Amino acid sequence: MAKRKIQELTTGVHDFESLIKDKTKKYVDKTDILYELALEKTDAQYFISRPRRFGKSLMLSTLQAMFEGRRDLFKGLEIYDLPWEGWTEPTPVYSFSMSKVNALTFENLEAALAKLVRGLCEIVKLEYDNKVEASVNFDEFLKAAANLSPTGKIVILIDEYDEPVAKFLDAPETLEKVRNLLHDFYEKLKINSDVIRFLMMTGVTKLTKLAVFSGLTHLADLSLSPRFATLLGYTPEELDGPLGENVEALGDRLGISREAARAKILEWYDGYRFSPQSERRVINPVSLGKLLGKDGGVLKSYWETTGSSTLVFNRIRASGKLPEDLEHVPADPMTLDVCDALTLPVESLLYQSGYLTIKEVVPAPEQTPEEAERDPKTESYVLGPPNLEIRASLKRGYISRVLGMKEGPFDTLVDRAKRQIASGDIREVVETMLFSLYAQVPPDWRIANEAEAKRYFQLFFAMLGADPAPEFPSARGYADAVVQRPDAVYVFEFKYNKSSKAAMRQIRERGYADKWKGGKRPVTLIGINFSSRKRNIDIPIVEPL
User: Fold this and answer.
1) Is residue 537 pLDDT above 50, yes or no?
2) Which candidate, 66, 217, 310, 531, has a CA 20 to 30 Å from the CA of 191?
3) Which domains does the chain have, with CATH numbers?
4) What's the pTM?
5) What is the mean pLDDT of the chain?
């Protein structure tokens, strides 16, 4: 008997109808959660933020089919047999993405917004008035659409509400005009809320919330809601259920068991926690789809290749942070819910963009009523990268976008270094490659002490595939770093404004490598000195034990 072909988990189809009708593609059923969301008939006007490529567009397309009453598309899904109003009394849906309102100048942005609204007006046979702003025409559109509706109500779905703002985040004067323009546009939704049966707006960040959302204070923000923490993304339980056969197929490709394949998926792509009140975590859907797809099968970073993160790494560079600084980031509730783009700290941007997630919730300390009145304390959080994929993305992005090294030459450098480390040729790696990497550090960044110089060393060597263990213990102290391989051991000591000889002398005097004496693996000692005058390392000393 021929083996049944497994449905593919797609990453490129964002239209619900197309996905359902393509029998080769798989839809993981989220309609039970969407049903709970859409069933509310009062104040059913929402906003949700999630990182890019987390399924927001597909969610909106599914909601559109639900409200339009396209029951035939939902056969076999949770909502099909539920008492849903759309099956008997559909509501007209108007769905659009603000990614279409994207421009490099404010004037072009105004024109793009006018074009979008003109298209909406054409749908309801309303003439666009060129004498007034796009926001006024949008107001007239909403009224006309409601008048045409059999129920007197309409559904509005807006994807990527923050997309028009992204190009202007580093141009404060233009940004203010953009935010005011969008405020006047979105405000019409509040003014006409009595005719809107359901509204959903999505975005990546809340960068514009203060100005834009001052006209949308009636929206319920679901971004941190425990009820909808698993609405976007896949859960570990779904790996065992509808995605089980795909996970098993991955295991076959990797030559490992289904359980081992599942564990690797969780290690690489799980870990996104979207609510402090829920410990539920989800898997990045685009990364999982690419891994399980016919062109996947390799555990690597997929998400970073699906879109630009220039803003994120510009902010990382401006803050002077290294990827290692982002492993245990203390945060308060405002970090997760910052509104103003002009004061947005890098930690908030990284959280909202998906590079950091909630790793731990720290309960508020106990306080007396008097203490609480004077200085009330709230719970706090520890943020960090959710998984191995994001750790790799942060390091690669740091090298290519912060230090300005092009990915092609850097990949060549990494491949060469890995081969040399594997063959035991550490000398060129530390004398040539490490020197070249330090030379990339921006001139306005200070490397003010030994600790800072060592942080760069740890990052660079990790990127070269060595992953040194820092502060490695011995009987008489701690080596700055040790790299252990099956066929070799490398022991490093670092100095600042001293000499490579001094570093080597300390390794030998304190016996940092003594534990490997007489072993089967050859041991190499490396003494390195960083010179603040040269802003680079001196020639390292490389000696056998």
Assistant:
1) yes
2) 66
3) 29-228 (3.40.50.300), 308-365+377-391 (no CATH), 405-544 (no CATH)
4) 0.83
5) 87
